[in-house]
Specification:
alpha/beta, nine-stranded mixed β-sheet, 7 helices, 9 strands, about 25% strand, globular, disordered N terminus
Amino acid sequence: MRQKAAADERVVKLSEIFTSIEGEGILFGTKTMFVRLAGCPLRCYWCDTPYALPLESGSQYSIDKVKELISENLLPNTYKVNFTGGEPLVQDDAVIELAGFVKQKGLRTYLESACYDASRFRRVLPYIDICKIEFKLKDSKVVDQNQYISLLDNELECLKLSVGSGRTTYIKVVVTNSSDLKEFSDLLRKIFSVIKPSEIAGFIIQPSHKFDEPTLERLFGFYDEVYPLYDQVRIVPQLHKMIGAR
């Protein structure tokens, strides 16, 4: 599932840089700079940034130019810089250099990744402070079913790496009304067989938005599977969309 690296590792395919309110996860409500890299090898049918999926969708910049753009667009009192996509691990070398630059400026770094490649994740991890480990259910149609086991293995390995490195780590799972409760329960057993509940900072169940949205009853079903194992579980929709933010 590893994409071929660009010939010039000093070049970044960038979709956009902007500052907004974080609307997802355990740090919702924080003022955040988003560095959205272009390109993603996955295809979740409910993806809310389809414009950033093709690598060619981004504009090409040098690493130094992106550093300039970060400095020029950084607003006062920004809580963190979120490296997102697309899929940031596609351009892992760029994330390493840009996250290192951000940390030198005294800012927190945050990785928003599908964790599809544990080897790339391992390289990026030393430069990241906060990791969101996202687990994809099969109804996301993220990959061919024959590749799903490999994707899950990589996600679990990324979770172990992040927790083992002492990073602030939380888990996110997007659910739809069609998501299978038994599959979700089986996933929980796998997750809590490789980490302890005390080692994560949160578990977020995120309802899909505008695509097969789950009912309250369905959301309670997923919540009730997690709660006996980890009572800090939260159902958090994409709050930025409710206030009209990007």
